[in-house]
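Entry 14. Two folds queued back to back today. First construct below, sequence then structure tokens.
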Amino acid sequence: MIRYSEEDSGQVDRRLRREVEIWRTLKHKNVLPFIGLCDDLAPCPALLSPFCGFGHVANYIKNHPHASRDDLAYGNVIHGDLKVQNVVVDHRGVPCICDFGFSKIINRPGFTTRSVGTVPYLAPELLFVFGDNSVDERARRTTQSSDIYAFALLVLEVQWHIRPCCWN
């Protein structure tokens, strides 16, 4: 469920509809299936997907230490905010990407975002340095290259439990 204040409702609704539009078009064995949007059973809208009882991939590895790390790490697709918390494991043990709030549809107006993901997974070129006005703001947007960087960090975490102290 998405929680927000009444004054943020217009922006949240726009972003929610955008995420639904992206997620519903994605069909792949490693993308968590989108079932629908429910906005009439609770005070806040909810994006519906199958329940993944194993949780995210880091929890799965902790509870299944002999699981194939290769299958879990390399079974993913490029996302936009790729991190262990956005890769859940389904009932068959297959990793599935979820949370498409920062995803982009390339070459389609209205389907881009200024958000750049989660700080510990950001490529160095996306980090903001105070007082550095030499970098154009457009250069600080996610790209395929920055997604590959985040994927590499995910692989390190899945394969060798390498986690910087700031990761949860």
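Second construct, same run, same settings:
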Amino acid sequence: MTSDIQYTTPGMDAASAARVIELLQDRLNAANDLHLTLKHVHWNVVGPHFIAVHEMIDPQVEVVRGYADDLAERIATLGGSPVGTPGALVAARSWEEYSIGRATTQQHLGALDLVYRGIIESYRAGIKELDDLDLVTQDMFVAQTEQLELFHWFVRAHLEDTGGKLSTEGAGSEREAAAQAG
């Protein structure tokens, strides 16, 4: 990828820029996947708490769509070319397709607990690596992680009992989390 970079931001070498672009592209793929997954949940959630969850999800979709744009523009700023096509996303992602269709609010929220857990863990890994590469991009990752953690808390508040235990505790897959939460 370094050979594809004709220029980068002042003060950053091409090799560092290439790695930062890789980290940004991975998060761009995750943001595009997440906002589509959240919209899928918005359309497919049913049950007694439908309207509360339906309306909770849409603002998350809009924020995450904005993250995708910010990430893509940072890639371009560093001299890269952001890739936002569906085929490229599917080919590059390291996670499975969201596995829940029409389901109750609790089932979708259980599955989303695992989705958010995975995306936040990958953001935090990027934050650590960026500490030595690019503090500007790291700052972007930190800000996005803060908001994603808030959204995760919104989801988890529906899955928590009064003692603080999550209904999804120990779940290893979306389907397992959905079953435990449902």
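Quick look at the second one. Helices lie at 14-44, 50-77, 86-92, 105-130, 135-157, 174-181. The first strand starts at residue 45 and ends at 46.
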